[in-house]
Amino acid sequence: MSEHAQAVQAVIFDFNGTLFFDNDKHVKAWSAISQELRGVPVSEDEVINRLNGVPNKEIIAYLLGGEATSEQVTEYSERKEAYYRAFCAEDTEHFHLVKGATRLFEELAERGVPFTIASASIKPNIDFFVESFGLDRWMDPGSIVYDDGTYADKIEMFKRAAELLGAETADTLVFEDSPNGLANAREAGCPRIVLVGAPGDGDGAGAAGAADDEVAQRIEDFDGFDRSLLRAS
Fold first, then answer.
1. Domain layout of the chain by residue ranges
2. Which DSSP string corresponds to 19-70?
3. CATH class of 10-20+96-230
C-alpha cells in the first residue's frame, strides 16, 4: 500500500476458498463432470490454472476441448453445482464460514464500511450460501455479484461490486484466494488485496506463486487480518 493511500471505502470478498474453504468439493464436482466429458478427472495443475476463480462457461468449454453452446453451459454448470451442493451438505463438519469472518463482518458494519461478495458461482449456489450461512444478516443479497452469464470475467465482477457499494476500485480492499482472482482484482484496479489460504496451504499462502509485493497480507483466517489495512496511511 502506498505511503499516501486513502482509507478503504469498501470491501469485496471472494467466496469459494476465501470465506468458505470448499476447494475439495469443487474439485470433486468438476472431476465428476470431467469424467463424463473426457473420461478422466481434473488434474492438480488444471485446478490451479483452469478452475479456480474462472466462470463455469470457460471451464466447460475447456473440458469440451473448444467452444461450448449455451445449452451445454447451462446443462453441465447446473449438474456440476448440484454435485457440489450435495458434497457440501454431506460434510457437516466443515460446512461453515472461515474462522473470524462474521466477526470481521460486524466490525466493518460498525466502521460503516460497506462490503459484499463477488463470486464466480452461479445464482443457485449464491442462494444456497445465503440461506445456509445467513449472509443476509450482514449484507444485502442484492449487492452480491455472481456469474449470471453477463460478465466476461472476474474483472468486470469486481468493478460491478465496487459500483454497487458506491466506491471506486482504487479505494476497495479485496479478499481472494486464487491466482486468477488475484490477477483479476489487480486488473480491476484494486490495489489492496489480502490472500486467504486454508491451513496447510503454507503460511496462509493463498494464491500460490504470488509475489509478496503483489499483496497486502496473507492470512489463514480472518482473525489474522491486520485491521490497520483499512485505514489511510
1. 10-20+96-230, 23-93
2. TB--HHHHHHHHHHHHHHHHSSPPPHHHIIIIITT--HHHHHHHHHTS---H
3. alpha beta
Residues facing residue 172 across a β-bridge: 10
Distances (CA, A) of 80 to 77, 98, 127: 5, 23, 16
pLDDT at 200: 62
Residue 153 near residue 171, CB atoms below 8 Å: no
Looking at residue 109, its pLDDT comes to 97
In contact, 233 and 5? CB cutoff 8 Å: yes
Place 178 in a pLDDT band, splitting at 50, 70 and 90.
confident
Nearest to 158 by CA among 130, 179, 187: 187
Burial (CB count within 10 angstroms: exposed 0-12, middle 13-18, buried 19+), residue 95: middle
The three grid cell numbers given for residue 170, joined into one nine-digit string: 482504487
What is the dihedral sign for C-alpha 115, 118, 119, 122? positive
Tell me, what DSSP letter sits at residue 16? B
Mean pLDDT of the chain: 90
CA 69, 160, 98, 51 dihedral sign is: positive
What kind of architecture, by CATH, is found in domain 23-93?
Orthogonal Bundle (1.10)
